Amino acid sequence: MEYRRLGKTGLQLSVLSYGSWVTFSKQVDDSASDILMGLAYDNGINFFDNAEAYEGGRSEEMMGRVLRQKNWDRTSYCISSKAFFGLHGKNNKPNQHGLSRKHLTEACHAALKRLQVDYLDLFYCHRADPDTTIEEVVRTMNILIQQGKILYWGTSEWSVAEIIEAHSVAKELGFIAPVMEQPQYNLFERYKMEKEYLPIFKDTGMGTTIWSPLASGLLSGKYNNGIPADSRLAIENYNWLKDRLIQEDKLNKVRKLEKVANELSTTLATLSIAWCIHNPSVTTAILGATKEKQLNENLKALEIYPKLTPEIMKQIDDIMGTKPV
Length: 325
Ligand code: NDP
Description:
Blueprint: E1 3-5, E2 12-14, E3 16-19, H1 30-42, E4 47-49, H2 58-70, E5 78-83, H3 101-115, E6 120-125, H4 134-146, E7 150-155, H5 160-173, E8 180-181, H6 191-196, H7 198-204, E9 207-210, H8 239-245, H9 248-263, H10 268-277, E10 284-287, H11 292-299, H12 301-304, H13 310-320
Parallel strand pairs: 3-4, 3-10, 4-5, 5-6, 6-7, 7-8, 8-9, 9-10
Antiparallel strand pairs: 1-2
The structure holds NADPH dihydro-nicotinamide-adenine-dinucleotide phosphate.
The site of NADPH dihydro-nicotinamide-adenine-dinucleotide phosphate has 29 residues, from strand 10 and helix 11.
C-alpha cells in the first residue's frame, strides 16, 4: 500500500480506501461487510468512509459492528462520517439536516454512537448549506475539534468560493480550516479536480478523498451489455443513477477503453482506478465493492498506476474526450 499525506496535514491515508455508500445494509450483510473490511485492512487500507445519510444511519451501524468485532488497534485506522442530508431524507424535520451548529453537533454525536468509536478522524460537511453561515460551520467544527470528538474537518462538493470563504473565516478567527474536500472524480467527471479546484490545492493545501472512481461500476465495463441483476444499477429506487449513467455514448467510450486495459494486461476496473490515483492531487480514492473479487481487482490499481505513461494517458484522453480544456 502507498500512503499519502492529507494535503498539508500530518495525517497519512492509504491511497486506496473503502466506503460503504449503497452497499452496507442494502447489498451486503454483516458477514460480507466483515470479510470486505478485513480484506481492505489486511491490504493496508487505513481509511473507511461513511455518512449519516447512508441507509439512514444503518450503514454506520453495520460498520460499527464490524469495527467492534475486529477490535483493531484504534490508532491503526481512520474513520469518517458526513453530515448534511440527515437520516430521514424527505421526512427530515427542521434541524434534522443542514449544517447548523445543532445538526452538526447532534450528527457527530450520533455517528460516534453508531460507529462505536470515541472520535471521528475525519468529519465532513456532506454539501454546502445556503441557510447556515460559513462562520457558524467553522465555529462548530472548531468546537468539535477542541472537544476531541473529531480530528480533521472537510467539505464535500463545495464550490471554490465556499471553500475560500471557510478558509478566510477560519484565518480571521484563528480557527482550524477545512483540510480535505471529497469530490467525485473519475474518467467521466474531471472538471472539478483538474480545473476548478486547482487554486484551492495551490492556496489552501487541501487534500482530497475522491468518490465513485468507477462511476458506480460503469467504468468496470459491467454495464456494457446490459444491467446485471446483482448490480447497483439494478436496485429499485436507483433509477435516477441508472438514467445518469447508462447512456450509449458513455458505454461506447468504456467499450473502447477496454483495448487500453487489454494492452496493459489488466481489467477496466483496475485501469480506471489506477488512472484516478495517478493524479497527485488525489490523496485517496474511496473504493466501493460488494464482493471480495471486486475489491481484489480494484486493489491491483496500485501495480498498474506507475505503468501509465504519458502516451497511455493521451490514448485514454482521446478515447474519453473528457479532459478539461
Ligand atoms: P465506485 O464508483 O467504485 O462504485 C462502486 C460499485 O461499483 C461497487 O459497489 C460495485 O457495485 C461496483 N464495482 C466495484 N468494483 C467493481 C469491479 N471490480 N467489477 C465490477 N463492479 C465493481 O465507488 P462508489 O460510488 O461506491 O463510491 C465510493 C465511496 O465514495 C462510497 O462508498 C462513499 O464512501 C463515497 N461517496 C461519497 C459521496 C459524497 O457525496 N461525498 C457520494 C458517493 C460516494 P455492484 O456490485 O453493486 O455492481
